[in-house]
Every structure is written in structure tokens, then in C-alpha cells.
Amino acid sequence: MAQGIDPASDRAVYRQIADRLRRRIEAGELAPGAQLPSESQVMSEYGVSRVTARRAFNVLVTDGLVLAEHGRGWFVRRKPPVKRLGADRFARRGEGKAAFTVDMETSNRSFAVDVLFVGVAPVPNDPAIRLGLEVGDKVVVRRRRYLAEGQPIELATSYIPLDVAEGTPIGEFNPGPGGIYARMEDKGMVFERYEEEVTARMPNEEEARLLQLAPASPVLHLVRTAIADGRPVEVCDTVMDASAFVLHYALPAHLS
Amino acid sequence: MAQGIDPASDRAVYRQIADRLRRRIEAGELAPGAQLPSESQVMSEYGVSRVTARRAFNVLVTDGLVLAEHGRGWFVRRKPPVKRLGADRFARRGEGKAAFTVDMETSNRSFAVDVLFVGVAPVPNDPAIRLGLEVGDKVVVRRRRYLAEGQPIELATSYIPLDVAEGTPIGEFNPGPGGIYARMEDKGMVFERYEEEVTARMPNEEEARLLQLAPASPVLHLVRTAIADGRPVEVCDTVMDASAFVLHYALPAHLS
DNA sequence: AAGTGGTCTAGACCACGTT
DNA sequence: ACGTGGTCTAGACCACTTT
Questions:
Q1: Residue B249 to residue A249, Cβ atoms within 8 A
Q2: Residue B65 DSSP class
Q3: What are the structural domains, with CATH classification, of chain A?
């Protein structure tokens, strides 16, 4: 019963089947969370082998539209809740609270932090350039993973020059209230601005594992350079589950 | 010759093969553009069937690491050149040049614009909210596609309230030098700021087609609201090939 | 002509979830 | 026990690229 499927078409049969399922998803007929027809149903409905039926589903997996649940079926992916990063997230910092904390309290969601590494280590290529250091110079490295409602959503690695961290607990496990920026201000440093570069890409294997990403889940990659007293004092490299974030920015209409 | 592959492992054979290839790619041993072993080679090297060999390659396709070329082989994906969007891209606007033009001239690359649609049409849900309109109210819609060095890299759709466009060529095919913002300034409107929201996701079918995206290529989705004279005067919805862009922002350290 | 990937089939066994 | 997806095999024919 190859309903509307043309085996002689240039378009492969599995793609034609995928196209039909995709249309039903994008039209909302198959809503997020809805179960798709089973492999057996597709086999008999279109008169194809199991391999061909599965290939149709796999196209939709690669497109990020569906996921299989072993022993249960194929389902339209649900959109997870989103965390908004405000344009004023640093300007509003203060009262002893770190930027991430302010964000999460604003969005009223439970959160947690895994500290993956804190210590002195050689600085990699990219942050070295941004900090004006030589590759391999020693810096304080702080690597952590943020979770919202129990789900990992963000990996962040900060690089801080040793002279900036000197005389503070920035290189220790617990940097104290308000985070490392507060410690820098304690030393009398004055923050001028933050520069951020945003890209998006597919995760590497480690990122996919640590963030427990589903197949075909892109990440937002944000590299922030904090500038105080006329020099870069920290680079923070952040990899976020793209489905969990909206970044918000305000741009001035005129140079001030 | 199942070199280092354990058929009894929990990890499927095709995943183990994919893991090994991925490691060689991420280590740089297989550089961008390099050819991977052929399916036949993988079959004999690991003693697996062709289906299993192909499945290993397909894992890497889904991860965005490799692409097949029919009749030639499997290759590590190349990174395309990148376009940087500066934090000052609106502040530096002027001299009769549109923002995109300024960007492209800065990066010294050839570019072109396809105008896909210009006219009056009902405003969709999201821009309606941002513009303070009712869904379905008429607005000027300008939809275009940008190309760099012949490759499509960006789709942009602008929504402009009718009263803003009134008395200007904003609703016409060619809005004149400097683009629509210049025409608004001609009317005496003063721009205050631009707000941008950035997300990343997989493209839908239309976006993938218009941007000629390879499999497993995420897009950056940027929605900009231009604010002038204390009100939103334009919403620009932009979908970019994520591999072709770096967005750059500057955030103030203090509310000014 | 030879080598490469693209598509498709039929059949098998295993693992997970639900009934 | 049954239905669902997960993995794997062997074999076939086609289309594209290179020699």
C-alpha cells in the first residue's frame, strides 16, 4: 500500500516517508510528545522493509525532530523550558550574588553547580590570546557545570591570570560570596565592560556527554572577556544546551 | 581483524568504530577535508558488514563531523569562512550604508542580496507581540536572503508598522541608500537602541533548503527589535547558517 | 572498468516496557 | 507474552567519479 509513495521517483523512498512524517510534525498534527506510527505500521502502510522504515525515522532524528524510546516507540521531541540571559545580567550583579545566581533567581527555577576543576593550569590557545598571555602560561582555571531542575544545561570554564587572582580565594574551591568578580572588586578593581562572542555548533563528544544532549542538539558557545582597569582580567568559555537558552542583548544606537 | 573492537561490549560495534574515527578527527589526525577510510576498508579492517560500516559513518554525519561525496568517499567537513557581526554594527552605521553592507565591507568579502518578498502582509504572532500589534494587523514585510561569496548564509525578514513606513519607500522593492533605517531617520525618527534575542536550533525544512545547509548544520536565530522615539519600529527576524557567523557583543559593567 | 557511495530487501537475535 | 525499538548479517542493483 505505497500510499502516495513513488518508488521510481528521484527522491528515495525513505526520504518520501520522512517528508510525510515531517509535514505532519511541522503542521502540528503530531504535537510535541506525540507518538509516531511504529516501525511495523510504516512497513505495512508503505510496503517497505524494516531497514527502510527505520531510515525514514533516522532522517527525522538527524533533523532534531523525533527521538526513539527503546521498547516504547518513536516520539516527537518536546521543547524543554528556556533560561533567558538578560542584557543587564552583569549590570544588575551585586549584593553578593554571582551572575548565574541572579539569572536563575530571576527565572525562578531550581539550580545547582558541579565544580569539575579548580586549580592552576596552563592556559589554552584561545583564552591566552584574549588575555594577552603566551600559550602555556599558568592561570587559575575554574571549570564547572550548571544544572537547572536537575538537568545539566551549561559548562563554563574561566581563565584568570595569576596576578589577578593573587591574594584572593579566586584559585580556591569556594571563592566566597558574589563569586570571583566580587573578589576582584574587593581588591579595588573596577569593571569597565564585558565582551561576548557567540557561535553555535554541534557539540563534541565530551560536551554531549556532560550535558546529556540528545542527538542533533546544537550548543551555543559563548566566550566572555571581562575587562577591568583597562585590561582583560578573565575569559569565561561557556557551552550551553542551545534548547535551554535565549540570550538577550541591547545594542546602543550611538557610540557613547 | 576486529582491531580493538569488542563485539560483546555494551557499546554497539558501529558506535565503537565511530568513536575511533571521531577520535582521529578531533585529534587532528584526520584534518578538515581529509578522506576517511572507504566503506570497504572499514568492512575488512573490522570484519563487519557494509550496513554496520555505513552506520558508523552516519553517526559522524549526525554529529556534523563528516560528509559523503557520492562516488568519491567520506570526508572530514571543512569549516567555512566566518562572518563577524560587531557589537558596534549599528552605532557605526551611517554614510548611506545599510548594516549588512558595513559588515561585509569590513570583512572584505563579496556579497549579494536576493529579495524574496516585499509588500504588505498580516503580521505573525511573535513580531506582533514585539511591535505591540494584534496578530494579523497589516505591516510591511521585507524578506530577503543574503549570500557571501555566492553561498547563502542568512535569511532575514523585517516587519515594519504601516505608520512607520508611511510616506517612505520602505514598502517598495528598493528603499533607497542606507536601507530602511535611513528612511526612518529621514522622517526625523531618532533611534534609541536595538534589542536582540539569540537562540540556536536545527533548521526547519524550508530554512535548510534556502540556506543549502548540510546535514547536522544548526542555525543561529536572531530577533532584533529596533526602538526609536520610545517605541518599537521594526522587528527583524534573522536565521543564519551558524557555521558562518560569530556574533560579537559588548555589555556595560554598570547601568548608565 | 574499477572503485566509491546510495538505496533496498529478507531475515535473525537481542533488549526494553507494558500488560 | 507481546510489541516496541536496537543491532547485525548477506546480498543485490543503481549512480557517481576517476582512471
A1: yes
A2: S
A3: 13-76 (1.10.10.10), 83-247 (3.40.1410.10)
